[in-house]
Request: fold
Amino acid sequence: MAYRDDEPIPDQTRQIAAAGLLPQWRPTQNLELQAFWGKRTVKHKRIVPTIYGSAEHLPPRIDARNFGQEWAEADSFAEHFGALANAVLADQWIVRAGVFHSRSVVNKNFADLYLDTQVDGLANHVFVAQPDYFTASTSGEVRVSRAFEGQGIKHRLHLGVRTRNVRARYGGSDVVDLGEAFIGRVEPVQRPEFSFGPQSADRVTQWTGGVSYDLNIPGRFESSLGIQKTSYERRIAHPTQGIARSDEEPWLYNASFSWSALRKVVLFGAVTRGLENSGVAPASAINRGEILDAARTEQQEAGIRYELKERFNLVGAVFDVRKPYLISIRPAHMCKSAMSVIGASSCPLPAR
Reply:
């Protein structure tokens, strides 16, 4: 079921099957092992059209209905599995490790696009068919922690390393112009004979190592400091443009504190710089299925928490967030997913 303004769209049907396992084993008091597996299969997913307005007009309101083609159905599956281990060693050493794998495969998919929609609902009807494509990711992490305390102060030191390898195959779509059509109307179209082209191969390799330190004076002060060095490499083998490369080696950091200035007053603050996965371009983009470049993000916040009564606090905070977001660029009546930077500042005063 799909939604538009929190309303269900009739005739957006699909068949979904999902299963999962989560076994755990604790052979000793100081060792815990856990594995997981999950799979989700989607069959016969009816494709709902996507409507784009023109530069001068918004499209008209239409009833919530699926007016797409009956033969436009998508099949896909996603699978995830991995294992975790926690071991408590002597002298308060703790080792945590994990390895994870996930893959997403789309066996067939379509994008039903209505472009440059006029005020009367007339639009350019374009259909995009995609050949099989996939994204697969394998990652692992090991973290070693040491806890110690003295004179009423608790300390914890963390050392960690993680790696990630992502592979993807995408592209080769065929675009068919079906002429003009009105949005909201069921107008059956005979399925075109699609002709797919060569695909791109995408690979991302990332290594990160870091250290962090936590300090805790119970009931008075808490703080955390961390720094990481990451190496990000991306290689794209285009069928016609050769190999494109993208490399980054940024320093990432985080710092936070919480201080009980008075009996019922807590001051807090944090600053973070990170490198986030940006996902893949959607089906309505001309670079559909492509892994988007990793995005650098920054966030700062500061605030105060006042305890009005037990389990009821008044919180005031200011924050500044800067991160890329997905935008659509429309050359030649099509859309390309890209990343732009947005900054947001706010001053909320929630009570909870």
Observations:
- Residues 3-346 form a domain with the Maltoporin; Chain A fold (CATH 2.40.170.20).
- The chain has a mean pLDDT of 85.
- Residues 288 and 297 are 24 Å apart (CA to CA).
